[in-house]
Amino acid sequence: MAETQTKIICITCPVGCTLSVSYEGDKVLKVEGNQCRKGIDYAKNEIKDPRRMVTTTVKVKGGFHPLCPVYTSAPIPKPLIFELVKKLREIELEAPVKVGQVVLKDFLGTGVDVLSARDLPKANSKRKQSS
Ligand code: SF4
After folding, report:
1. Domain-wise residue ranges, the chain
2. Chain centre distance of CA 110
């Protein structure tokens, strides 16, 4: 298998180092441009099994807001992101929604759940006033 070179941006921290990565298949041979060890780990993961956290919203029936923010419990493989977002568009929760509530369990057997990021009361319920 031939050696391939590519450039990727490390998104592990706000510095955003540009990494020059040489690899064969899914084996990383050399990483340059990283300012710390995490850049090497990031490059290896990006070549072998790139994953991302996903945050989006889902519809809520009868809620104080029509949409509820949600997030994945762990990063999912990048090739599955489109399918996940498509699946979440089909879901409509019923208010009230609790923070941390499981919106979608074990997406495609990845072991990753999608969770609600906030409480969302019913549309007609009064919000608690802080004193
Ligand atoms: S290589 Fe290190 S310093 Fe550079 S973006 Fe990645 S984590 Fe940050």
Report:
1. 4-49, 55-116
2. 13
SS3 for 118? coil
Written as six digits, the tokens of 18 are 């540009």
Nearest CA to ligand 1 atom 8: 13
Let me know: does 100 contact 119? Beta carbons within 8 Å.
no
Q: Are strands 92-94 and 55-61 parallel, antiparallel or unpaired?
A: parallel
Q: Tens of pLDDT along 34-61?
A: 999 999 999 999 999 999 999 999 999 9
Determine if the pTM surpasses 0.90. Answer: no
Find tokens 């298949």 and name the residue: 25
CA of 28 to the centre of ligand 1 (A): 17
User: Where does 55-116 sit in CATH, by number?
Assistant: 3.10.530.10
